[in-house]
Amino acid sequence: MKKLLMSGVTALALAAGAASAQAEDIKVGVILGFTGPIESLTPDMAGGAEMAFAEASESGKLLGGSTVSSVRADSTCVDAAAATAAAERLITSDKVAAIMGADCSGVTTAVANNTAVPNGVVMISPSATAPNLTDIEDNGFFFRTAPSDARQGVILAETAAARGLKSVAVTYTNNDYGKGLAQAFEAAFTAAGGKVEISAAHEDGKADYSAEVGALAASGAEALMVFGYVDQGGKGIIEASIDSGAFDTFIGSDGMVGDSIIEALGSDIEGFVTTKPSSKAEGADNFIASANAAGLKGDGPFVAQSYDAAALILLAMQAAGSSDRSAIQANILNVANAPGEKINPGELGKALEILANGGQVNYEGATGVELDAVGEAAGVYEEQEVKDGAFATVKFH
What we know:
Layout: H1 8-16, E1 25-32, H2 42-59, E2 67-74, H3 80-93, E3 99-101, H4 105-116, E4 123-125, E5 142-144, H5 149-162, E6 167-173, H6 176-191, E7 195-202, H7 210-217, E8 223-227, H8 233-244, E9 250-252, H9 259-265, E10 273-278, H10 284-293, H11 303-320, H12 325-336, E11 341-343, H13 348-356, E12 361-363, E13 380-387, E14 390-396
Parallel strand pairs: 1-2, 1-3, 3-4, 4-5, 6-7, 6-8, 8-9, 9-10, 11-12
Antiparallel strand pairs: 10-13, 13-14
């Protein structure tokens, strides 16, 4: 996957045209799993992106006073055909300038390969974390503000080892996300001296997971690693484990973070440990406060990453002086990285003005954005534990 940076001279020349651009209402797609295994998370993710759209629109400084309209589409998180069809509608019927999304790794890969890249439309995913997305043939049109699971696997291995675990069972959702994370975890945990007694896929959408739990428990492992979805099979596996007494120690990945699992399992889920992409950026607390004030869960999974993904699209437009799809692509890395004036959450109006005047910005946003040559964020991970009926921060990695 190769990203092409515009020369500084060309980028600045395009930016100078931003102030004189003709005002328009620009449509940007937001494709997330509004139904499916993470449906309790996606409303806040979409809301995070739409905060950025509103901020830029209300500033009056985007492309000569242009506004941005969000066009939502349902990826389902798990149905590649449905996600591809939804993205096709965004691109051909709604004529979006770019796409914030998709969310889950499998559908993100499908949308990129089948629709977005062939049509030259930028996608910035806030949550697709499968390691294999690093190597897709994207012609420079796919980016992500969430880090790869190649790193989360290491963090989860460190988290398990720090709790004295030597022997674990692994269950993972049977898709690109689950498989990639399970492989990354097993490599890191084994290298640290641990043993994975069994690593087994589970299917989402089942009413009964007792057979899967029986096989996992038969391995004799001390604890269960759950790499699944909070509103689907991952929750079902934990519930069946608790009901049968098979396991009482659980560590979950980012897809397992959500208040819905606490609401569903109550005090039985006390002590549940998870990891998720997070932030120690200068503007993180301000973003959380602003999102909370807007009725969102500001520190929820991938909400900050969604805001940042949307902000990068808007700033790239301004740097290009155009909402043209190819022009947006050519400027993503220019606005995401140094040099330029550092931009925090809530400062999009300031950034748009700088770009309109021919200046440069270094967008750090809510998650400390810094994209590498292939358009990926390194990211910070937060380790959490359910204590007194809520997810509490343990530490940052």
